[in-house]
């Protein structure tokens, strides 16, 4: 089941699971030593797929002069089941629905560029390093 929640709508167990998954994937698995809890969660929309009490996939959406989709993850227990494509497609469609006409931006790990291009995103920056991994900024224009 899909959930779309503001920070203050998250149940404490959901928040703990989300932050734990982000830590497990970004910090531990990818060895990306950065401050994941960055003070932006409270103003963001949290989008996730949850079944049988377990979060399978998650992303965070923020709005400024554009819509930013980030922190896209798939629970390692459910990889290979298409949840990466599902969560990202759901996030993009939600962004289009809630913010029609706005540009959607992402910061992508460079090796995933083709994945994001398959959704119509194009590169808008050169590659740069974040926590030891090559990234590139991409956007989808309305």
From TrEMBL:
GO molecular function: acyltransferase activity, transferring groups other than amino-acyl groups
Top-level taxonomic group: Bacteria
Xref: Pfam families: Acetyltransf_10 (PF13673)
Residue ranges constituting the N-acetyltransferase domain according to the UniProt record: 5-142
Signal peptide location: none
Record protein name field: ElaA protein
């Amino acid at each position: 089941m899909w959930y779309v929640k503001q920070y203050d709508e998250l149940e404490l167990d959901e928040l703990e699971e989300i932050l734990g998954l982000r830590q497990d994937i970004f910090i531990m698995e990818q060895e990306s030593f950065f401050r994941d809890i960055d003070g932006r969660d409270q103003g963001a929309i949290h989008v996730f797929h949850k079944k049988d009490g377990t979060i399978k996939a998650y992303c965070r959406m923020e709005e400024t002069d554009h819509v930013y989709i980030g922190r896209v993850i798939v629970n390692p227990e459910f990889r290979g089941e298409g949840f990466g494509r599902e969560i990202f497609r759901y996030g993009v469609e939600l962004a289009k629905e809630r913010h029609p006409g706005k540009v959607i931006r992402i910061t992508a790990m460079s090796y995933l560029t083709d994945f994001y291009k398959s959704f119509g995103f194009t590169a808008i920056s050169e590659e740069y390093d974040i926590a030891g991994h090559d990234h590139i900024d991409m956007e989808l224009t309305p």
